[in-house]
Write a structure and sequence with these properties.
Structural class of chain A: alpha/beta
EC number (chains A, B): 2.7.1.59
CATH class of the largest domain in chain A: Alpha Beta
GO molecular function, one term (chains A, B): N-acetylglucosamine kinase activity
Oligomer: homodimer
Protein name (chains A, B): N-acetyl-D-glucosamine kinase
Pfam families (chains A, B): BcrAD_BadFG
Strand content of chain A: 15-25%
Number of helices of chain A: 14
Strand order of the largest sheet of chain A: 3-2-1-4-5
CATH architecture of the largest domain in chain A: 2-Layer Sandwich
Enzyme class (chains A, B): transferase
CATH superfamily of the largest domain in chain A: ATPase, nucleotide binding domain
Number of strands of chain A: 10
Shape of chain A: globular
Largest interface: A-B, 36 and 36 residues
């Protein structure tokens, strides 16, 4: 066993979780800061046309980052294996009960990324277990649609991405390319524009803004000159993005520059969704069909009087009045588990019809 | 001696360079990629109201990076000491002949930075040697004005900065804050906007552009998706900035997006100069006084049919018709040496008048 004793619990333990013998599914949400795995019983899902509320989650486990771009392949692989083992152990189940696993992992941008992770997971489970690897945005979409891959998800946290599926399975994405490549609607993008506004105001290229006092106070600095050293002392995007609440506060207090930055971010985020909707023709031929837009991430969740998420929806509605905004009631790992179940059902159905 | 045997040449060698016994000055230009030191005889400079052409450069030495933010303090200090020792040795002179040293070093953004480097250099030279430490933009300005600190310099290479002096000694700068803090007129800024345009065109947020084929071909990539991996594989700003020629070529071929990016860069660079001119009132009370603007760096030097430097001047002229653009005929290290001489003369004059 390459990853220590993570599967030692399987030796001789009784099986409690898989009470009906119909097996379990695992859903994994692998993000930039943490990785979550949930274990759901297959029978409960199978037995209802409508999903039970609340969902019968057998177990939940949390571990660190599993983005191979950040922590390297070996650490990412070990994190994924460990979090799945812990969820199975906690649920009183084991690998022989697993029917399907779906992993939504950040940093999966190509089929090469997908195949590499599939290969890691293939070595862990018995051959009959169905495995699915997707970008973490796909799990986030499924968390809003309860497993159905239709519509568009918009994630705006430290980064931002829009990812969508048509009913026929076609998919498209916009943004998600990082700060150098223009994710201006992201938390990082908003905060970097605010820092820039402070520098421009200081050196005479821009008008005065409340952002100067607000940001200097938050960071404990005495002059905008010191922002240069602060910015380049640590390349972490999340450290910059953490300044978004200052921008929202200044905009709420009536600051023109902060307001412009947020208006610009709203337009950028709406443009990401519109690009996906248009390419997939989610609004139908007449442009009036309804489609879900799942809204995820700190930038969209902050429910202040300057509500970025609400403004994004308003902006999308000007083009697509029938858009149906959704705030997910479950976490992305559950979305991944529901995807695993859906993929499994689809394959069984296809088998039956052959 | 802390820095090996760099001063060993002084033991028992004859003095050839300082033929008149009036001493020499050293000028150092410490940049992000290399450090240059030149040694000039003081007499030749003293004896002429008009500077001799060509300048009697006794020696020139080149070493690596001396930006303490990049290579650390110890390496930066050793590089500076080594390059000065080499220039003195090559000139057939030694430290006892040095009257003044001026260092223009990148990364000097505060009096703390200045004092740290002064302390290093103070330990190297006899106590009577006059020492001056400035941002490398100051040496670049002096290279265009042949030592006079009046007017504004605009540097646009990988980064960009505008730095100016009024006749009364007041100084001001704009930009020079790096890519996160909005140096959009820099080579990095131009290239990052071009890469962003390729991604936006690819995912449906932007119109088609020739930049896509041009940049993918230059980088040997087959799809815009691969740009994400390429961009984050190496954080070097210079690697991104190296794409500027592709943007210029596409603009010259009539590409709308490339043209817009360059027009935007021109406006940003002109705005940097205008901010400095306005704060220092370089154009006089009536706005019609002449003042020099020294133009330095690869982005301004590229003498193509789409000439960024020429357009920047045109743009500045709309506000300040009497602006006097200068392309330096000597390198920044010579500018630093002329500054050393000017500072020295000023101090001698002040002494005489006491």
């Amino acid at each position: 066993m390459r990853n220590g004793d993570v599967w030692a619990f399987e030796d001789g333990g009784e099986i409690r979780g898989d009470v009906n013998g119909s097996g379990v599914v695992l859903g994994v949400d692998g993000g930039a800061t943490s990785t979550v795995c949930v274990c759901l019983p297959l029978l409960a899902l199978l037995s209802a046309h409508k999903l039970p509320d609340p969902l019968p989650v057998l177990a939940r486990a949390v571990s660190g980052c599993s983005n191979h771009n950040s922590v390297g392949e070996s650490a990412a692989r070990n994190t994924l294996e460990q979090v799945m083992a812990e969820a199975l152990s906690k649920s009183g189940s084991n690998r022989s009960a697993v029917r399907a696993v779906c992993l939504g992992v950040s940093g999966v941008n190509s089929s090469t990324d997908q195949e590499r992770i599939l290969k890691w997971i293939r070595d862990i489970f018995p051959i009959h277990v169905k495995l699915y690897v997707r970008n973490d945005a796909v799990a986030a979409l499924a968390s809003g649609t309860m497993g159905k891959l239709h519509g568009c998800v918009l994630i705006a946290g430290t980064g931002c991405i829009a990812y969508g599926f048509a009913e026929d399975g076609r998919e498209a994405r916009a943004a998600g390319a990082g700060p150098v490549l223009g994710d201006w609607g992201s938390g990082y993008g908003i905060a970097a524009q605010a820092l820039t506004a402070v520098i421009r105001s200081h050196d005479g290229r821009g008008i005065q803004t409340m952002l100067t006092n607000s940001i200097l106070k938050t960071l404990g600095l005495s002059s905008p000159d010191e922002l240069i050293g602060w910015t380049y002392a640590d390349p972490s995007w999340a450290r910059i993005a953490a300044l978004v609440p200052e921008v929202v506060s200044c905009a709420e207090a009536g600051d023109q520059i902060a307001n412009e930055i947020l208006v610009n971010a709203v337009q950028e985020l709406a443009l990401c969704v519109k690009a996906v909707v248009q390419r997939l023709c989610l609004c139908g031929e007449d442009g009036n069909s309804s489609f879900p837009v799942v809204m995820v991430g700190g930038v969209l969740e902050a429910n202040k009087s300057w509500d970025i998420g609400k403004e994004v929806i308003k902006y999308i509605q000007t083009s697509y009045p029938a858009v149906h905004p959704i705030k997910p009631q479950v976490e992305p790992a559950i979305g991944a588990a529901l995807l695993a179940w859906n993929y499994l059902m689809k394959e069984s159905e296809e088998k039956c019809h052959r």
